[in-house]
Write a structure and sequence with these properties.
homodimer; Nucleotidyltransferase, domain 5; 2 domains; five-stranded mixed beta sheet; ATPase_NBD (chains A, B); ROK family protein (chains A, B); ROK (chains A, B)
Chain lengths: 354, 354
């Protein structure tokens, strides 16, 4: 809720005008696949979260050739300095230099204006009411490399699309542009959309905010002011309320363990959660009809156990409705890739397009 | 429900290979605005419904220069012959000839495969299980003019986008690609999506099928097999069930008249309907974040009285939620244009792109 924005003046071109010389770009071999006619170049993406920064370096072919993980330093100054260090570290880990980097993309929670490169209300990063010109500050810190800033869900969706497209390429199959929703089961519930290869932000940056679609008039109140929002049933917060941690592990892990051990109450809570998550998948397909729904966010670290439960719930829902059955929802769901930091990869992809 | 499809083999090129000579195209003056480099040409669109066919002729600039209305003849043969006659009539009404027509688009209910140009399960047109190769048959009937077939909601959305874009052009403002959902309050409830100027069909033709998103676990059963679908609250059928016609006028008209006259029961039913329709608008924006939601379909013939009621309901919902308030939903809603047959216009636009 309220984690996105899209208003403000356009100054996107500004950082690239101050861009450093591109002479060294592409000194490592490799051909550009973008077809844009531009010199091949590396890009860096950072996924900035409340506790950690994940970074990825993409080579000119879009392959991940370096990753990094750092602890997040809160507050504006720490954020910029930490991000700059993460960029330098991931560049070094890939054996290249900052001058080889054509662009940097950042994925960040809070209200992001991708056009002006600013962020505000990123409360768990120590960024409050004042607008922080993050793109400009980081670009200056990096000697002028262009920087773009994007909502954390959008970079995750773009990253998942990038990984899926490259897998399809490697499999040698017909290449379709990726078409997917990244369904983030984090503390809250929201999604990012890539439709036929294009990031769909929406006109006010609210595309994919399905967590606040009311699905039960008698449901619990939501902090957003409405009642019975989907997020109240399908999110990490909803799970924690229904099954608080008792043994020091994350609530989803304890719940699934208890269900596996045969605890009847846990089975009920787990099934209800799986069914609510299935409802989120159904909602995404009935509105956008995306080819894939990619499960991500903290709760998705449960892995195949979560996927199985959600697919079972989708098959259960389809049993009563031939219409739903025809949409083959269970087949559209998959887990987010875990072999790469997918949001950081997406940020790097957007850094390339800047 | 089940009114769309998108599978089947691609034979889209077939009709155009049999296309008649283009020599006469553009003999009336006018410059092409498509930027495609193709010769300027007229296109025809038909909106084929259960009782009537509406037709529109677009000139090379995209202006509506002829319209027609015919009674629908049911069954495959009657459908093709009636559509062909409607094309000839609308062409004549615009003072041009069939040879000036570069393409024909059809909007039709039922399961449409736009790639193969076939339709099935258009039960209220007398087309049942067998697949009807409508594009091919009509093209042959018209001497080879290319014909495309599209879902009726999709043509309505494209038509509304076309009209909005042209209004913006005339107003001389900054030209944005139209970004909208066409929300059809017909017998059922569904929508068509145009996102940044592009028709969004979805991978199985199900994009915009919001009528079958469940919004109340205790709601009435839906013929689709689920319970509490949005269509059970916001559609012509829902209105008729809640307020059956008593005086020979359509149920929505009688309901709104009774509410205006102060009938307390009618006011409750009307408010509930407006609130459910507002929920459909909210759902569309929270998923796709479209700039405009255009109200169409039979119920929208109520006009400004409906628009006012829906906008009031949206403002009411926003009162409890600053988050919803920030999305300015009431400002996004408008009535479908009535000065042109908007679905037929959309069909003609798609006929041009074929």
């Amino acid at each position: 809720m309220g984690s996105r924005s899209g208003t403000g003046t356009s100054v996107q071109g500004e950082p690239s005008e101050r861009k450093a010389g591109m002479g060294k770009v592409g000194k490592r071999k490799g051909s550009a696949r973008t077809g844009s006619g531009r010199a091949p170049a590396y890009t860096v993406g950072l996924d900035i979260g409340g506790t950690k920064i994940l970074g990825a370096l993409l080579d000119p072919e879009g392959e991940v050739v370096g990753t990094v993980r750092r602890t997040t330093v809160h507050g504006a100054d720490g954020l910029v300095a930490g991000a700059a260090q993460a960029v330098r570290d991931v560049v070094a880990s890939g054996g290249v230099e900052l001058a080889d980097v054509a662009g940097v993309g950042l994925g960040i929670p809070g209200i992001v204006d991708h056009r002006s490169g600013t962020v505000k209300h990123a409360v768990n990063l120590g960024v409050h009411d004042d607008e922080l010109p993050l793109a400009e500050l980081l670009s200056a810190e990096l000697g002028g490399v262009p920087v773009v800033v994007e909502n954390d869900l959008n970079v995750a969706a773009v990253g998942a699309a990038h990984v899926l497209e490259r897998s399809a390429d490697r499999a040698g199959g017909a290449h379709d542009h990726a078409d997917l929703a990244f369904l983030a089961l984090g503390t809250g519930l929201a999604s990012g959309l890539v439709l036929e290869g294009q990031l769909r932000r929406g006109v006010s940056g609210a595309a994919g905010e399905i967590g606040h679609v009311p699905v039960d008039p008698l449901g619990p109140e939501c902090p957003c002011g409405q009642r019975g929002c989907l997020e109240r049933f399908a999110s990490g917060k909803a799970l924690e309320a229904a099954w608080p941690s008792r043994h020091g592990k994350p609530s989803p892990v304890e719940l699934f363990e208890a269900a596996r051990a045969g605890d009847q109450e846990a089975i009920v809570v787990k099934d209800r959660f799986a069914s609510a998550t299935a409802s989120a998948v159904r909602l995404l397909v009935l509105t956008t009809d995306v080819r894939h729904v990619v499960l991500g966010g903290g709760v998705a670290q449960l892995g195949t156990e979560l996927l199985d439960a959600v697919q079972d719930a989708l098959r259960e829902q389809a049993k009563v409705s031939p219409f739903l059955g025809s949409l083959r929802l269970a087949e559209r769901v998959q887990l987010a890739p875990t072999h790469v930091p997918v949001a950081a990869v997406g940020a790097a992809v957007l850094g390339r397009r800047s």
